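W.,

You were right to be curious about this one. When I first looked at the sequence I had no strong expectations either way, so I just let the prediction run and decided to look at it fresh. Below is the sequence, 173 residues in total, followed by the output.
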Amino acid sequence: MTQSYAEYLKNIFSSARPFPTASMEITLLEQAQFRHHRREVDLFHQLAHIFDWRLHRDYDKALGEGYTLIVTDTQKSILWVSHRFLSMTGYRPEEAIGQTPYFLQGPNTNPEAIRRLSKELQEAAYKHRIRPIREQLINYRKDGEPYLCNIEIDPIWSQQGELTHFIAVEKEV
């Protein structure tokens, strides 16, 4: 398991390093995190360009604010997840890609909420829905631990008006 930023800082400041060394390590870590975030945003923009998406939300801002993004096709098969998916769920991107988000659900996931969500997703194409579909669900991490998640799913339309994907913007409560 990777070390959290807070744990990293605690280790730096609890060790007997001189201040300039610790300061340099923090700066280098922040620069690495920024570059990683920039690459993720660039990849997201490449997807938007390839699929000719007409976007109605600032996904760069959502990524910067720590939200998890999940891109699915219209059959709800996961095509891409942001790097925060790992810290929220414990699953690496390659473990999620090709699955549906339902693999995160478990015994305490509200079946009525799932029915509402499924119905809204199915109706999105017919209603040419642009606004997000909102739900709060109990999902499960890879280790079986439940977590409460606020989910907003945006139907994504191409410039030609075709529903092509869904983008879930998620945050653990």
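Here's what jumped out at me. Residues 18 and 113 are 53 Å apart (CA to CA). And, maybe more interesting for your project: The first helix runs from residue 5 to 14.

Coffee later to discuss?

I.
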